[in-house]
Design goal:
The complex is a heterodimer of chains A (272) and B (330).
Chain A: H1 8-11, H2 21-38, H3 40-60, H4 76-98, H5 100-105, H6 108-113, H7 119-147, H8 155-182, H9 189-202, H10 218-223, H11 225-238, H12 245-268
Helix pairs in contact in A: 2-7, 3-4, 3-7, 4-7, 4-8, 4-9, 4-11, 7-8, 7-12, 8-11, 8-12, 11-12
Chain B: E1 4-13, E2 16-26, E3 31-35, H1 42-49, E4 57-62, E5 65-66, H2 71-77, E6 78-81, H3 93-103, H4 108-121, H5 137-149, E7 155-159, H6 167-182, E8 187-192, H7 195-201, E9 204-209, E10 212-217, H8 219-225, E11 229-236, H9 238-246, E12 253-257, E13 260-265, H10 268-276, H11 280-283, E14 286-293, H12 297-305, H13 309-329
Parallel strand pairs in B: 3-8, 3-9, 6-7, 7-8
Antiparallel strand pairs in B: 1-2, 1-4, 4-5, 9-10, 11-13, 11-14, 12-13
Helix pairs in contact in B: 3-4, 4-5
The chains are: A mainly alpha (272), B alpha/beta (330).
């Protein structure tokens, strides 16, 4: 075996100074995108769940359901679609955050830890990639719902919904990263996912308005960020919301920043 | 000043001292080995030197940079091939290299040239665009060596580089490492529990057991401590035979281990006939079998620690099992 008489020797004294912050964020983002675009089977299964939800619940309960205080014409399908988009965002972004655990399990995290780059840039890039992939899935869910008869109020609403999706994604990815950074084994992973995601989803006013909750249950909905996320999505898309949009926006911005900061901090403290 | 300087490095995990006050120096361009059983503290030492783990106490400098205070400078100067694969299985070989190159700040032109260079170096050019999940173990290891060299590191750390590989692939990897060290003058630090590996590749070897360095020298010097060839004898009764052999003038050193007596002497092949001439009947012992060999690092390990490397690993396994049982009872 012959080693090429290359520039190796004369470059030994040359030194690089590690990836810049921008380069680091970009390459982490790029990695998430590549992995996402290659896992086509997971994409299909992620879309299947909301699709079937909408199909069965939306059509099944349509005629029998009336929302208290809603203008005429808001049928249950229209009520439900933003909830389902919110659900998609919740699951995909939480999963994206927790996937930091996989890297830990499979050793790739060491390669990242040992590189001369800022850990904050690493996790920001990863979060950006996770938000992008969650966003793609959320938008695909929206497109699927168009085929089922969903109609949005106006194009501006679409842009606003976009913003809400990003904020929901960011909040739960940050949360997922925070959890993954303090968990040391993947065994508890599935139990955590179930323990966390279902209460968050069920107590968010996704299936019926918060005002229909019994009074002892309502506080849980009020402290749940997803409640405001789904309400904001609904307000943007069909014009019907229980809380003022500015309130939902503000709360999500705050929670989003907090979660991303928490996740970044805990991630930078990991020792492999 | 060595390219690596380690002073009183210690790592404690709660009640366990994994690395116990070790010190050593490695010169530029050297191939240095840490030899010891699993659980001896080799990987923990490497993790500290590669800035993955904070030491409990002590210090170390790599290329003059402190491993705690100047982490990024250290990271820029070193390349690492870990014990477990640290590749992204869903990306191709080339993408893994590109990822690494960007993280280390290589500009576009250098990236493209360098990727091509390292792929040729480890003979993976035609496999570069296959997803790493489809690589064999040997291919993955070669890719990781290529990746470790991407940014022209001054020191390359290899943690058990041929663990789990077949003999042929192991030979090939030894050749790469040898070439890297001799021709390209990359300082190599490797850990292993294979004594042939340490013997073949390393200029100097530190033998490590229970977190301590018990010996440090060239393989040749270490073996010379044992004083020449080793004659292994099975005799009954072994105590009687031991007594008799002990008194022979040309026996430099004698030990008994698991019923086998080992004699160290010069020119063992000439001494065996002398042994057989002993009047066994009168001296009431019987030689059952005789074996002659040149000393290996395994003998050196035995000499310094009182056990073979395999026995040391079995002990460590027992200790680990006990610790797990204790934890489960809580």
């Amino acid at each position: 075996m012959e080693l090429n008489n290359s520039q190796i020797s004369k470059n030994i004294s040359e030194s690089f100074n590690g990836g810049s912050i921008g380069q680091t964020i970009y390459v982490m983002w790029l990695r998430e995108m590549k992995r996402f675009l290659r896992a086509k089977s997971r994409l299909i299964s992620t879309l299947a769940m909301p699709f079937f939800f909408l199909l069965t619940m939306g059509f099944g309960l349509n005629s029998s359901f009336t929302l208290p205080g809603s203008p005429r014409g808001v049928n249950y399908l229209n009520f439900l679609v933003p909830s389902i988009i919110g659900m998609t965002m919740l699951f995909t972004s939480l999963f994206a955050g927790i996937s930091v655990l996989w890297d830990r399990e499979f050793g790739f995290l060491k390669e990242i830890m040992v590189a001369p780059v800022k850990r904050s840039a690493v996790i920001l890039g990863r979060i950006a990639g996770g938000i992008t992939t969650a966003l793609i899935q959320g938008i695909l869910t929206l497109i699927v719902s168009f085929f089922l008869g969903f109609k949005i109020l106006n194009p501006f609403g679409f842009i606003l919904a976009f913003v809400f999706m990003i904020l929901i994604g960011g909040s739960f990815i940050g949360f997922g990263v925070a959890i993954a950074s303090v968990m040391t084994d993947t065994q508890g992973f599935s139990s955590i996912m179930n323990l966390i995601t279902f209460p968050i989803f069920l107590l968010s006013g996704a299936f019926f308005p918060v005002s229909n909750f019994p009074s002892w249950l309502r506080p849980f909905a009020y402290i749940n960020p997803l409640t405001y996320g789904i309400d904001g999505l609904r307000g943007s898309l069909i014009g019907f919301a229980q809380f003022p949009l500015s309130l939902s926006l503000g709360i999500l911005l705050g929670v989003g920043f907090l979660m991303v900061a928490l996740g970044s901090y805990l991630f930078s403290k990991i020792e492999v | 000043m060595g390219i690596i300087e380690v002073k009183n490095l210690t790592k404690k995990f709660n009640d366990l001292t994994a690395v116990d006050n070790i010190s050593f120096e490695v010169g530029e361009g050297e191939a240095f080995g840490l030899l010891g059983p699993n659980g001896a503290g080799k990987t923990t030492t490497i993790k500290m030197l590669t800035t993955l783990l904070r030491p409990t106490s002590g210090e170390a400098k790599i290329c003059g940079y402190d491993i705690v205070a100047q982490k990024d400078e250290v990271r820029n100067s070193i390349g690492i091939v870990f014990q477990e694969p640290a590749l992204d299985n869903r990306l191709t070989g080339r993408e893994n290299l590109d990822f690494h190159a960007r993280l280390y700040g290589l500009d576009k032109k250098t990236r493209q040239e360098r990727i091509k260079e390292v792929l040729e170096m480890v003979e993976l050019e035609d496999k570069a665009d296959i997803i790493v999940r489809d690589y064999s173990g040997g291919m993955q290891r070669r890719l990781e060596i290529a990746r470790g060299l991407m940014h022209y590191p001054k020191v390359l750390f290899l943690d058990e580089p041929t663990l789990g590989l077949d003999a042929q692939t192991r030979r090939r990897i030894w050749d790469y490492i040898s070439e890297l060290n001799k021709r390209e003058k990359v300082t190599i630090i490797l850990t292993t529990h294979y004594m042939e590996e340490a013997d073949y590749l390393c200029e100097r070897v530190a033998i490590i057991d229970f977190g301590k360095i018990v010996a440090l020298d060239t393989p040749a010097n270490l073996k010379n401590i044992l004083g020449g060839d080793v004659i292994s004898i099975e005799a009954i009764p072994s105590d009687k035979a031991f007594q008799i052999f002990q008194q022979i003038s040309w026996v430099k050193k004698i030990t008994k281990h698991n019923g086998e007596i080992s004699l160290n002497c010069e020119q063992g092949e000439k001494k065996i006939p002398l042994l057989m001439k002993l009047d066994q009947k009168n001296l009431s012992f019987e030689i059952k079998s005789v074996n002659l060999r040149k000393p290996t690092l395994e003998d050196v390990f035995l000499h310094f620690t009182g056990k073979t490397i395999r026995e040391a690993e079995a002990n460590q396994d027992e200790k680990n099992k006990k610790r797990v049982r204790r934890r489960m009872r809580r």
